[in-house]
## 1
Amino acid sequence: MRAFDYHQAVDSGQAVEQAVRRDGAKYLGGGTNLVDLMRETVERPEMLIDVTALSRDIDETDAGGLMIGAGVTNAAVAGDARVRLRYPLLSRAILTGASAQIRNMATVGGNLLQRTRCAYFYDVAASCNKREPGAGCDAREGFNRYHAILGASSSCVATHPSDMCVALAALDARVHLLGPEGERELAFNDLHREPGERPELETELRPEELITAVELPPLPMAVRSEYRKVRDRASYAFALVSVASMVELDSNTEDETIADVRLALGGVATKPWRAWQAEAVLRGQPATEETLAAAADAELAVAEPLSGNAFKIELARRVMIAELSQRIVDARKGGES
Ligand code: SF4
C-alpha cells in the first residue's frame, strides 16, 4: 500500500472543502472496499477524508418516508425497526450481503460507491478498461460466470456487486449530495452509469461531491416487499441473480389485475437494474402466470450472454416469475387482512 494522508472531517461542508483543496483525495466510509483496493494498488489516493462520523442518523421525513444518513452502517439500517416493518426488502437485501463483521463497518454511502468485484479489475497484471482506460478487457474471453448479461458494452461486462442497491433501485430512493456548488438530489436510478465506452466512470457524481443521505419515499406496498438472492453458496457470496420485488393488486376489476409493481435485479447487470420493461408489461394486466412470463421475457429480450454465463438468462427468468408469483400471493393475503 502506498503512503497517504488522513483527515477526519468534522462536518460535511468541511469534508467537501478539504476534497476541493487536495488533488487525489477520496472520501473514506467503512473502508471495506476502498482499503482492499488500496492494498492491491488499484486505488491510489493521496489523502483519505474520513466521513464515518458524519450523517449517522435515520430520521422520519415530512413526506412519511425515511432519511438514512450516509454514515449509518449497513447493520444499523438492516436492524432498524422502521426499515424492517416498512421496507423489509432493504433489510433483507443487506443481510444477504457480506458478513456480520463487514456489515458492522460498511456505510450506506460506501455501499453505493463500492466497485465491481471483477477479478481482473483487482489483478493489476490483467487488462482492464475500468482500471486502465484503453487497456482491454480480459473478462470478455476469460472467466465470466459472474459477469453481466444486461447493460454491458464491448468495453466492460462487470456487474455491480451491491445487494442493498438493488433494493434501493426498487424503492425509488433518492440520493442527497453536497458538493462545491451546494446541495442537490439525484434519483437513485440515475446515480450509476452503464459502462459504454467509459467504464472508469461509474456514477453521475460531480467532482468532490459527497453523498450525505439516502431518502426512502413512502411506499405502502413495500410492507410486502422481498429480496431473493441466488448464489453459489449460502453465505458470503455475490449474487448470480437477485430479485427485489413488490406488487399491489386491484381486486375490484373482473380479472384481478396488477395495479402497481416494483422489480429490480442484481447480479446480472452493470448497475443496480430496475426492470422497467417488465414493470410496463405487468401494470394493469391480469395477475396470471402468462403475464409474469411475458414480463420476464420482455426484460431479458436484450440480454447478451458471455461464454460462461448464458445460464443467467434462464435463471433470472425463473427467479423473476417465482418471486412475482409469491408477491401476488402475499398481496392477496394483505388484501384480506
Ligand atoms: Fe475490467 Fe470491466 Fe473487463 Fe472486468 S469486465 S476486466 S472490470 S473492463
## 2
Amino acid sequence: MGSSGKFDQRPAWTRDRILESLGESAVRLIATIVEHAHAENVEIYLVGGVVRDMVLERQNLDLDFVLAGDAIAFADKLAQVYGGKTERHIAFGTAKWKLDCAAINKMSLGSGAIPAQIDFATARTEAYRAPAALPAVEPASIAGDLRRRDFTINALALRIEAGSCAWKLLDPGNGNSDILGKKIRVLHDRSFIDDPTRIFRAYRFASRFTFTIESGTAAILREAIPVIQRLSGERIRHELDLILREAYPERIIADLSALDIFAQIHHSFRINRRSAEQFRRLREHMPKLRGGSDDVARLGWHLLFSSIAESDALLICARLDLTRELSRSIAGFTRLLASVDWLGAPANKASAITRFLDGISDTALRAALICCIDDGAVKKRMVLYREDWRHRRTTIDGKDLIRAGLTPGPIYREILDKLRSAWIDGEIETEDQERELFLKMVNKVE
Ligand code: CTP
C-alpha cells in the first residue's frame, strides 16, 4: 500500500460489523463504489467521521471517500454509469455525487437508509500560507492525507478491497486508541494555528462524545485562541451553527465562554450566565417545534444574544456575516428583552404592546418567551399577543373610509389603527360598536 500508516486489525472490520453499523443498503452502495474503483484501478478509502462513528457504534451515513486518483473524474464517471449529478470543487479536488431515484434503482440498493450525497476527495496535503487562511492543497498519499486532519479520532481510514470481506483500518495517529481512551488529540502542533475553527470543533466533539481534550492539545489550543480574530465571519458562523445543532449546545458554549472565546469573535460578545438554563428550556420545548433542527438552531442563535444590547448585537451579527433577516430578528429579540419591564407594567395597554411586538419576528418572540418564562406578567402578555392580539383585524377597511367621503392620506392609517386598538383593548366587542366608533371619528375629522 506504500504508506507509512499502520493497520489496526482489532477488532476485525468484517462485512458483518460494517453492516451492523451502516445497514444493508449503504453497504451495497459502498460495494458498488468500491467495485467501480477496482475496475478503474483506483485505491479507495472510507475516511473521517463515518469511520470514527463505526468505532463508537454511532449511526452516521455521511460517506466520505478519499482516493489516490482524480476524485472529480471518478465521481463524474459514477454519475455517468449510474445516474445522479455531481457538484465539483476544482480548487480542492473534491466532488459530491448526488443520488436520485434512477441511480438508487440502477444500483439495486433496496429501501434501507442511504445518504442523499456522497463526498469524494483526492488524497491531499494542505499548505497554510498564513494562520487561519484557507489552505493550498496538493495531492498526497492517504497517510499524508490523514496526517493533515484535525484530530486523531478523525484521522481514520478504512481500506476497502473489492470482493474482500475483511476491511482494514488505517490509523496513523492512534485514533482508535484515543477513541477508547476518550481523548481529543491533535496530530501536529500547528493544527489550531493553521485552522482555528478546530478550536470550536475540539469542544464540539468533546461534548458530543463526552471525551476530554488531552492536556498537550489543550495547551496548544489555548495559545491559538487569539488567531480566532483572523477567521472570516462565515467560517465562525458555520462552527457556531454546528454547535447549536448539537444535543447539548450549552455545554460547548460554556466551555468556549470560560476561555473567553466569544470575546475573540467580537469584544462585546458575552454569553449570559443564564444561557445554560435557557438552552435547557429550549430543549424542553423541542418536541413542539415543527421546523426541526433548523428551527432549533435559529432559536439558539437568538439565545446567544440574551445579554447583549441591540447596537452591539448588530455589530456582532455583521462580524458573523449573518443574513439580514436573522440579524434583524436577533436585534428585535434584544430590543424585546430590554423592554420586559415596560411589557409587564400594568399601565401599558394591550394595543401599545401589540404595536411594539408587531415589529418583532415570531422567532424572536418565541426565544424571548424562553428567557422570560419565570416572569408571569410578561409571559402572559406575550402569549396573549401571539394567540390573540396580533390576529385582531378591523372589519372596516379603506373602502369604507372612501365611502365616508374622507380624503385619502395619513388619516386613513390613523383611523384604522385606532379601531384595531379599540378591538385589542376590549373597548369595542361587536361590529356595531366598531361602526359607531368609526362614525364618531369621521364626524370629528369633518
Ligand atoms: N477536517 C479537518 N479539519 C477541519 C474540518 C474537517 O481535518 N477543520 C477533517 C476531519 O478529518 C473530518 C473530515 O475532515 O473528519 C470531515 O469533516 P466534517 O464533515 O466537518 O467532520 P466530521 O468528522 O464528519 O464531523 P460531524 O460528525 O460533525 O459531521
